[in-house]
Amino acid sequence: MLYTENPRNGDALSKLGLGCMRLPHNEKRAAQVVRGAIDNGVNYLDTAYIYPGNESMLGHILKDGYRQKVKLATKLPHYLCKNSGDMDRIFQKQLERLQTDRIDYYMFHMLGTPADWERMEGLGAVHWIRDKKASGLIGNIGFSFHGSHEAFVRLLDMHPWDFCMIQYNYMDEHFQAGRKGLAYARDKGVPVMVMEPLRGGKLAGRLPDAASRALRAADQTLTPAQYALRWLMDQPEVFMVVSGMTEPDHLSENLSVMTLPALTPAHLHAIETAKEELARVTRAPCTACGYCMPCPSGVDIPMCLSFYNESYGRGGPVARLNYIMRAVNHEASRCVQCGACDKRCPQRLPVEKLLGESRARLERFPYRPMRFIINRFLKRTPRS
Q1: Measuring CA to CA, how many Å separate 125 from each of 40, 119, 203?
Q2: CA-to-CA distance for 227 and 204, rounded, in angstroms?
Q3: pTM
Q4: How would you write the pLDDT of the chain (384 residues) with one tens digit per residue?
Q5: Which residues contact 286 (CB under 8 A, 6 or more apart)?
Q6: Smallest Cα–Cα separation from 93: which of 135, 44, 59?
Q7: What is the distance between the alpha carbons of residues 259 and 257, in angstroms, rounded to a whole number?
């Protein structure tokens, strides 16, 4: 494992952090990933209040001395705070769930605009932070970010943050905070943790054929995930890569990047070629984070958008067939345009519009007769 010293407090943190949002909901399987990561030197775990069951599960997994081996990070959902008492109520609940008396790295979750922070200031957030840090309940305060580059710069200037976390990968090099925001944070001495390094797994597998060929042509020994993670590791401005892992083999692949040499110009050229192909076929840059779920109408939004993208990248007929097989009772056509998904999406995607486009592409003829035949064969009953 590689470690980097936090210039703000001297913490030696692993270059690879474990993002817990994508852990399996089965605690035994999740423990394999979490404890396996810690046993291999990962010492930073990231969770959040709104990840269903995640904090409580981690509290159980980190027993038997594992809590003492890691720095624990979680997030306050500022959008659920209506008054100063909500901050204390939520924070206390998080301590109970995680079975701990301290949060080492605490974030305001999904700050997206200066107005978000101004509202929290109005609720007394600055005094609240000062009190929690003075009492030792919080070690470091930061924010996770989804918004424009300009908003990121302003937010960095509005408070003496100890750290921050941004979405960043080779496809999002100039998206949201982007490379310029990363450099700005570096110049201010604010450590930057990077989330979505594989863009919700999109950069680890299921790449368009042309993108996969370009990467393999440059180096047949590297997997797509190793390319994406090494691209980040090679940038000194990236303090830590927080990678979401679901299975032990994901952990093994992530850990293998620690011993890989830096990417060569040939590797970087291959990544640029892959980026061009991915941009060409990606209609919905969804990371499958699930923040839009659950849909009140039962639509499986990440799945629908995934098949929508695949219908351009891997051939329409195969994507439509897979959609018929898997989307029963969760189709895009169930969307009633309530607007909930658009409000929740951290990518600021026009989700309703994209679901409409998904329906038009994936549910055109012969979708309905094929769905009827397949459901009869599989003895499934679609909801009306």
Answers
A1: 37, 9, 37
A2: 9
A3: 0.86
A4: 999 999 999 999 999 999 999 999 999 999 999 999 999 999 999 999 999 999 999 999 999 999 999 999 999 999 999 988 999 999 999 999 999 999 999 999 999 999 999 999 999 999 999 999 999 999 999 999 998 999 999 999 999 999 999 999 999 999 899 999 999 999 999 999 999 999 988 899 778 888 999 999 999 999 999 999 999 999 999 999 999 999 999 999 999 999 999 999 999 999 999 999 988 888 888 888 888 999 999 999 888 887 887 777 656 677 777 777 777 788 888 999 999 999 888 888 899 998 888 888 888 877 777 777 766 665 656 665
A5: 200, 301, 302, 305, 306, 309, 347, 349, 354
A6: 59
A7: 5
Tokens 């897979």 belong to residue:
322
Torsion of CA 382, 363, 207, 258, to 10 degrees: -40
Q: How far is CA 52 from the centre of its chain?
A: 15
Can you give the length of the chain in residues? Answer: 384
